[in-house]
Amino acid sequence: MEEVQAGPTPFANQVAGHPNSILASPLSPATLIKPSSARELAFYTAVGPALHPDLIGYWTPAYFGTLTLQGKIGDGGQVEAVEDEGEQMLVLENLTYRFLRPNVLDIKLGTQLYDDDAPPEKQERMRLAAERTTSGTTGVRLTGFQVWDSTTSSFISTPKTYGKSLSSADLPSGIARFFAPHLASDSPPSPLPHPLPLPLLHSVLSHLLSRLQDLIDLFSTLECRIRGGSVLIVFEGDADALADALAREATSPPLKPVSSSTSDEEEEEDEEGDEDETSSISTTDSEGQAKPHTRLAVELRLIDFAHATR
Known about the structure:
By secondary structure, the chain is an alpha+beta fold.
């Protein structure tokens, strides 16, 4: 466990959850940090690896350990000292790092969003929250997303209040608002993001459907319970970068993510192969951004395991 005294900063691509609950990592732009709970730490270190050897780092963010923060972000955005021994944080893979303009969608999964051992008042509150949203009827709720608008060169964010307002019948239109805002049947966001070319969007959806089916197939063989977890979808919002990433993936598989389970031998092999830029996992350029040859077109992972048990 590492101790970090530098002040934390908010994670720029957080689209859901409590404000400032996810922070930019002081270690590397390829990682982020979030508060550690005993159950989520156990999932990354013991439960997940025991369920399937490829679960952590392939179907979830890669896990790199913990650190202790000596400061926190206050209500006004300023850094405040923490009491006692500091807050333990998980160091996880930043799933938006290998994208130039990441379109990000967080989807809360499940019809029951509380643990069986939660206090009765919390169970009732969470039961009502699910009952009043699409969680209760479909097991799916849009908890927030951002979409890149090439016209304004900025992200257009949609908060969790939007997902809570949707009925089950509105859910397809809500999903369309993320992937193709101009095709959504409900009131479009303002300003309306410039749409990606349909052939590129078709490729993104094909990739996502294939990966989603693989995820379903995997979890049909596992015995675990993940309450309040989410699936995070990321795809490239810049049309040129997306076309380049799709072209690379059509001729060669995407670079595998860095994993906490990478062996010393594998690391040595990576170092020896650094001369071949297309196979190197050294992803950061001089400005702290992912190198173009390492960028992805689309990603889908499970996140949030504070209520996961086997």
